[in-house]
Amino acid sequence: MTRSIRITLLLLTLGVAACTTSAPVRHYTLLHPPGDVRHEGPPVDFVVELLPVTLPDYLNQPQLVVRQDDNGLLVVVDDERWLGALDEEIRNALSAQLLERSGIQDVAGLSWPNDREVIRVKLQVRRFDAWPGKRVQLDAGWTLGYARESGEARLVCRGRFEAPAAAGYPALVQAQQLLIAALAGRIGQDVTAWSAARKSGRPAGSAPC
């Protein structure tokens, strides 16, 4: 093989490598780093069973799904991905925030304590929209029910949360983490009020929602 042929083959190899090299894939989680927010009130006398979260199929993707405008244009960002399935990311982050902010333990997958009520929480995420460099928005509904009792009245709630988002995907995910924290705060308030209403003998639907 002549020297010129070897050089040509080397250049072709380098060219193919350059064409196949892609940007590194970055992975994100909705689990918020431990912060200064800690539950400092009296311990709660109930636990929750946080059921699997439901959300639209178009959102439950490995990649981040963002909006480019307000006209329905969605973009799947292939190089920016969730560390796990998005429904599990939301459930795990919500479970952690309920304990951190409200002192409410999630016993899903664990043995139920005999000395405390178990309140079942079912969350449905309707929208989890993100406009890079602008804002993020979460629209969700949740249902509370007593896990040990069939046919018990349910409390149905809904909330919408919004936060500004700085430029860049890391900042976008940080803003989404704040939405999950705000959602956990609302659910913590609702489940605490609902439990208190039950113990006082008030109608189940009398708790604020």
Topology:
Blueprint: H1 3-20, E1 26-28, E2 46-50, E3 63-67, E4 74-82, H2 86-102, E5 117-131, E6 135-146, E7 155-164, H3 169-200
Parallel strand pairs: 1-4, 2-5
Antiparallel strand pairs: 3-4, 5-6, 6-7
Helix pairs in contact: 2-3
Quick recap:
The chain has helices at 3-20, 86-102, 169-200, and strands at 26-28, 46-50, 63-67, 74-82, 117-131, 135-146, 155-164.
Question: What this model shows, in words?
Answer:
By secondary structure, this protein is an alpha/beta fold. It contains 3 helices and 7 strands. The strands form 2 sheets. The chain has a 4-stranded mixed β-sheet, with helices on one face. Strands 1-4-3 form a 3-stranded mixed β-sheet, covered by helices on one side.
In angstroms, what is the radius of gyration?
Answer: 23 Å
The pLDDT mean sits at 86
Q: How would you write the strand order of the largest sheet?
A: 2-5-6-7
Low-pLDDT residue spans: 5-20
Strands, count: 7
- How many strands, what sense, and barrel or not for the largest sheet? 4 strands, mixed
Number of helices: 3
User: Which sequence of SSEs, written as H and E, runs from N to C?
Assistant: HEEEEHEEEH
Which term fits the overall shape?
A: elongated
Distance between the termini: 79 Å
Structural class, from helix and strand content?
alpha/beta
Query: What is the strand content?
Result: 25-35%
